[in-house]
Amino acid sequence: MAAIPHLRSTQTSQQLIVHSKPYLICGAELQNSSFSSGKYMRELWPSLVDMNLNTVLGSVSWEMVEPEEGLFDFSEVDRIILDARIVGLKLILLWFGMSNYVPPWVKLSPERFPRARLRNATGGLKTTEILSPFHRTSMEADARAFAALMKHLKETDGSHNTVIMVQPENECGILGDSRDRSELANKAFGEAVPGELIDFLRSDWEQLHVDLKNNLQPGYDADFGGKGASWTSAFGTGLHTDELFMAYHYTKFVSTVATAGKAEYPLPMFCNFWQNYNGKDSENDFPWHAGGGGCPGDYPSGGGVSTTLDIWIKFAENIDFICPDVYLNDYTSICKTYRHRNQPLFIPEQRRDERGARRIWKAIGSFQALGTSPFGVDSLAGECAYKSHFKLLKSVSELVLDAQTRPDAMMGFFFDEVKVEISDAAATDILCAGGFRVRAERAFTVGKAGPGFGLVIYMDSPAENVSKYLLVGEGFQAVFESLTPEADYTGILSFVEKEVNPATGKLETLRRLNGDETRSGRFAIMPNEDPDYGGFPISITIPARTRIAECTVYWLKKG
After folding, report:
1. Residue 308 in contact with residue 178, Cβ under 8 Å?
2. Strand blocks (E) in 443-547
3. Which of 4, 173, 403, 471 could form a disulfide linkage to 303, CB 3.0–4.6 angstroms apart?
4. Which class for 18: exposed (0-12), middle (13-18), buried (19 or more C-beta within 10 A)?
5. pLDDT digit string (tens) for 502-526?
6. Smallest Cα–Cα separation from 436: which of 490, 383, 396, 477?
7. What is the pLDDT of residue 287?
8. Could you say which of 2.60.40, 3.40.50, 2.60.220, 2.40.160 is the CATH number of the domain covering 410-557?
9. Residue-wise pLDDT tens digits, 219-268
10. Strand 321-326 to strand 115-119: parallel, antiparallel, or no bridges (unpaired)?
């Protein structure tokens, strides 16, 4: 059997290792039901390959593999894996267990597999389609099915590594109320807070995310009510207590499922989460209710958002990292939040448009992301916005993966279309490396400034006063300034456009850039594909071509 895909620690984070080499995920997630049909997928593989993906994320549901209790059918899964292998794509499987993707024999047995019950608008209780996480029968049946899938993957794919990661469950949490109010849930809520949770919050107080600390500060000051305190006496009465209660118990459910699966085949595993959204931390024009809302129950209560992230990292055993699904929230802030406790960043769901595509460079360049994945690409009619981005990223992936392991060696950035009514919060990004301060700005243009994205990677310093950088992307310019106190002048020694040799995969020089492309040595311009000349009759800015360039800079002393 081939070496199992795994995570390897670096100086900065962790990287995914596939076939014994670091692997950068250029992924896309399909609509929830797409993987239920090998025939449907067979028609789709050519268009996915054309999008320049290297990884596809798709759901495998409990109902799909165990249509009758104890009788497993992996035929559709096998067809999908084989076809993905044939076209050269890797897979990340998303296990849909405790949601409404459970088999009919589970749905028809509410006595054995009780549902979560939620408070309705009149204060009464209503039964939902979601299994309650407080019932061991449901937990163990889900875990058995997941373990059977993982065992089958090991037997049929262990020597190929077509499947490189797995996500147990999907966007856990309670929607429509702040907590489960079924009989067993109420019983657990009335009992003492588990000692391991209190001990963790006390001992790790300084390391907790600020959003969780803000919720818990009164309880911390009062020693969480002492030994044997109830949930309300320890943390107060309110939505944040309900959310904490659900988060802790969801980690126990997911841990049981993940542990059973890893015992059969220990692929890297992660959980993804719908974000809380109240419009205050948004970089979009959408109203707050477009994202569900900012209160537990408006978004799935108990999921691994910033107010519960520490709980998931600590208590979700055999889950290697926690992930955000990012659509409406401020992208950079979410990336920073999910690097909490130095866990690796992976974004399994994000916007599938050009606005979303520009943002992958920030995640990968500044937060060492394992990769990113737009959601729902199989329902796109026409070109995918990520196609050109992934083509460019894959062409420099070896250099990117190397830079991710070196502290402060790379930064990523993006610039959206200029809007008068919205301030350009992402106008400048700065990297200090190789003895120079490198500032990424919107590219010079005579007319209206356009959108942009990219990476600046510090390569090496061949001399004391000389450093070399790789610029990747378009619509930006790199401005250099020496950090040496005695430096009197900083200049561009050379600026060359690079292209990838398709035979070797290595970068080769295409042409030397100077003059207008450096504004006479002031900065290195990486223009966009269609620069706006603003009616100016002289074409002093060239359009983007390869979108890869090497810039060598130097400094001189006074005199």
Report:
1. no
2. 452-463, 466-474, 476-482, 487-500, 507-512, 524-526
3. 173
4. buried
5. 888 899 999 999 887 888 889 999 9
6. 490
7. 57
8. 2.60.220
9. 888 899 888 999 999 999 999 999 999 999 999 999 999 999 999 999 99
10. unpaired
Phi, psi (deg, nearest 5) at residue 124: -80, 180
Please give the Cα distance from 517 to 525 (Å, whole number).
6
d(CA 222, CA 234): 8
Amino acid at 66: E
Q: How far apart are the C-alpha atoms of 140 and 255, rounded to whole Å?
A: 11
CB burial of residue 520 (10 Å; 0-12, 13-18, 19+): exposed
Cβ–Cβ under 8 Å, residues 399 and 392: no
> 324: which residues sit within 8 A by CB, 6+ positions away?
272, 273, 275, 334, 337, 338, 347
Amino acid at position 256, single letter: T
Supply 2's token pair.
């081939």
Q: Among 219, 245, 368, which Cα is nearest to 301's?
A: 245
Residue 383 has what DSSP assignment? -
Question: Span 6-113+129-176+247-403: which CATH code?
Answer: 3.20.20.80
Q: How far apart are CA 345 and CA 322, in angstroms?
A: 8
Please spell the DSSP secondary structure of 342-378, one letter per residue: GPPPEEEEE--SHHHHHHHHHHHHHS--SEEEEB-GG
Domain ranges of the chain: 6-113+129-176+247-403, 410-557
- 452-506 pLDDT, tens digit per residue, is 999 999 999 999 999 999 999 999 999 999 999 999 999 999 999 999 998 888 9
Alpha-carbon distance of 515 to 518, in angstroms, equals 5
